[in-house]
């Protein structure tokens, strides 16, 4: 069944397995839907391995290009969602191992930060939103890296524990423990902010 223009409006109509099958058959509309579904979550996920957002966005985009180029092998992929997350993880971890290249990227990022306005600051339109954003960032920053990643994949991206386990290369029970740790940190932080009256001001 070919994806028509009406159904193109919502990527939720199709499963990942179905989209992979259509991509393998050369249907570019399916590729667009898969890109729309996962590009933003993958970029957020990639930031846990690389702090340069421009580099992360570039690498994630490259992976979708590779996916289309190598679409003839997609029938061998059992879990498209886990597969695409693992590919992003491995791609960014390779970059971290390339120190000269990474150092050059960091220097470029520093220069750009001097002459370019922060994207985040452009989004934040008023003082109240900025305060709320800072509080959320503070809470997330205190959560251990693996626990934060598991929490975001579960609560934000909607992945199942088994899928997260495949991405992190751990057991589902470990994922459950990571999320429990994250929730404990969040609960403690919110209680602390509440006592300090910070939550009442936003």
UniProtKB/TrEMBL annotation:
Domain RNA polymerase sigma factor 70 region 4 type: 135-184
GO biological process: DNA-templated transcription initiation
Pfam families for the chain: Sigma70_r2, Sigma70_r4_2
Xref: InterPro entries: RNA_pol_sigma-70-like, RNA_pol_sigma-70_dom, RNA_pol_sigma70_r2, RNA_pol_sigma70_r4_t2, RNA_pol_sigma_r2, RNA_pol_sigma_r3/r4-like, WH-like_DNA-bd_sf
Species lineage: Bacteria, Pseudomonadati, Bacteroidota, Flavobacteriia, Flavobacteriales
Keywords annotated in UniProt: Sigma factor, Transcription, Transcription regulation
Identification of the protein by name: Sigma-70 family RNA polymerase sigma factor
SUPFAM superfamilies assigned: Sigma2 domain of RNA polymerase sigma factors (SSF88946), Sigma3 and sigma4 domains of RNA polymerase sigma factors (SSF88659)
